[in-house]
Structures
1.
Amino acid sequence: MKEQRGAFTSSFGSMMAVVGSAVGLGNIWRFPYLAGVNGGAAFLPLYLFLILAVGLPLILSEFILGRASRRGAVGAFRYLAPKTKWYLVGYMGVTAGFCILGFYSVIAGWSLRFLFDAVLNAHAGQSYEEIAAGFRAFRNSGWQPILLSGVFLGLTAVVILKGVEKGVERWNKILMPLLLGILLVLCVNSFTLDGFREGMAFLFRPDFSKITANTVLDAMGQVFFTLSLGMGVMITYSSYVTKSENMLRSKGIVTLIDTSIAIISGIAIFPAVFTFGISPTQGPDLIFLTLPNVFAKMTGGQYVGILFFLLISIAALTSMVSIFEMMTNYLMEEFQLKRRRAVVWLLCALFFVSSLCALSQVEGSRLMIGKYNVFDFLDMLSSNYLMTIGGLLIVIFAGWRLSPKRFRKTFTSDGRYNNRIYPLFRFVIRFIAPIAVALIFLSKLNLIGG
Ligand code: PHE
């Protein structure tokens, strides 16, 4: 028998769920390090521009598809374009989900490890090299990262098992305000540091000479990643939202919150990095290697460290929940599986993928695909290809394949909201967003411009 379809019960709850998906490692781990390697403030205006030109239209497109069909990633296309191959876009999303959860849960596991370390005050008095060596030993053990990513996947599964209202919505309603609170405490703490001015100057004074072709690609990839776009997560969540919600308003707010949290994370991180004379251009290790080091030297650093790694763990959990829910919904809709059974299958499969990712990071590991280890390969495949191509096809579908009448009805909630501004968004979804994504994607493939 088919289980009843879940739904969010309040607009606050549904907004927190969407924010929970969007706000994740992308904001706290990826954004600061990308801003760091791309010349700090030079990255920001470009990023903001792409959020508006690509991010907002895309999140709206996914919401239109989910709301118009009341189905998940694959089901939405089957319903809106029956007897066509469009549903393959949904399959691409599910594949991207596997890839992302595989490596994302490993990073989430790292944050758990640093959280334990902070609680035990394990890094007090350690030098940078000692902290780095400890982290390397942890990664090389193989079993430790596997165990911790397994813990994270298990926690995610527990939330999903409870269903849409009692699991996804409820936990996001609790965890998101908590996350915001922690972030604000960290931000205020940042104001008291000696390197505050220098950190802020790095983040906010633009140096346009630092913008290269790569900056543009990084910025667009980040827009997709941070707003959870291009893989049907937002299609699935929007299928749980009541039809009367003002979509433009709520998605506008979500986009604003997500962007603000990325910037606030920058404010919480860079002053500390400058205060203790650490290079802001470290790359992916930025928060994991530099920050424990910063906390080790700071007065009260242990508590700041606990808060910080708790923050990242929460952010990671709620994003993982959204991907896991998208995949669970797919199994339930396509194969009429019970939620419990779908979750168990997924948990086993994902644990396998994440273990491969963790093992591929052991020094000298032979788990390689081409020149990448499995971890980097899945990251690259999902963010550079699956999400971008998926996103492009989704805006094209919303703008060109969906009937204009249905588009309008869904966008305006049957003519209730945004009737005047609607043509502008239709134009952006039909022309600006797809052209921008296609151009940037082609240049990524070196087909134009090199
Ligand atoms: N948006 C999440 C983040 O910023 C990551 C994510 C990607 C979540 C894709 C869901 C889907 O960390």
Note: The first helix runs from residue 11 to 22.
2.
Amino acid sequence: MAQAIPAAETHLPQALEAFDFGGPVSEAVRYGEGHINDTFCVTNQAGTRYILQRISADAFKRPDELMENILGVTEYLGREVRRAGGDRSREALEVLRTRSGEPFFSDSAGGAWRVYPYVEGTVCCQTAETPELFAAAGRAFGRFQRLLQGYPAETLHETIPRFHDTEDRLSRLKAALEADPLGRAQGCRAEIDFALAREADCSVALQALRDGVLPLRVTHNDTKLNNVLLDAKTGRGLCIIDLDTVMPGLSINDFGDSIRFGANHSAEDERDLGKVNLDLDLFEVYAGAFLEGAEGSLTDAEIRFLPWGAKLMTLECGMRFLTDHLEGDHYFHIHREGQNLDRCRTQFKLVADMEAAWDQMERIVGRYRK
Ligand code: ADP
Ligand code: GN1
Ligand code: MG
């Protein structure tokens, strides 16, 4: 049977027509390693590059609201960057409007496309090859958090409702388990039990928020290492990308998601779990850099809860991969059978490592408490 053409490729020509890429387009190719959007790199005949994305309709139900958030946040960040004497075109994303002046284009199937100029002279890393590189990302995400401190949070739409509601993520895992539409539950009993045994943990950060111990802030919510572009010459964390999930949230989750993805030396879908280990030195490096970038804007309670951010983002992400595996891989792009289960396993291995290193993680962040 012939392979189905992905919807993004089918509608790509329409999208290429909808924007002015500064001249005739010479190439548009799949790009990057994101799990959610369909990303293309477009090059015009003069060699200028752009990032063209078909926004995932599975993840984001309201692209109009999402783009309104992104316009607001990128303009705000642009002003802050300029005020600090930075280079606006490289340190904050810029939205390129359609030929008719809209922030995105809707194709004939209802798919939403948007364009950013490509930030040249940068690198995007999939693993923390050196501690310096990881620190650079930490400073950039800490700074991002601080720069958005004054952003009017009430104007932001919730692009994915209950995105980091770990209690709800567990409920959704239970529902997927109950339905088990593909009969996959029997093949992942150990992973299901691992998650179910941590039900109480799922409430820790949310309870602290409900109790007023942790404040709600404007956060990025998807702080993987490959969502920051580093300056190719200096190694500095230059531009935070993937702003689809900028919403009110918890600072500890922004910290935690970076630890989840970066404080180890393995790929997110590594099948040899012997290679998947929490690297406490990287945890320490990142904690210092993130707090340096945040420049004192985090409260003592937020610093105290940083290890919880790491554990909960990792546990939650593992549960999300497992849920998607049970439901038939409709949310996270996969490139091979079982990939979401493999991703879940690496996350749960890291959670186990964090539990074993809990005292050390607390000691490390304790040094920064006020
Ligand atoms: P996803 O939500 O699918 O992760 P991203 O917005 O993170 O999509 O984009 C996917 C990849 O495309 C990034 O990891 C990065 O490599 C690259 N990328 C995205 N925006 C830019 C940009 N403006 N300049 C350079 N590279 C970019
Ligand atoms: C997705 O979009 P991307 O690939 O940067 C996901 C994150 C997960 C991550 C796991 C909108 O991030 O929440 O932590 O995959 N983004 C969304 O790698 O769901
Ligand atoms: Mg991304």
Note: The pocket of magnesium ion (ligand 3) is lined by residues 34, 226-227, 242 (CB under 6 Å).
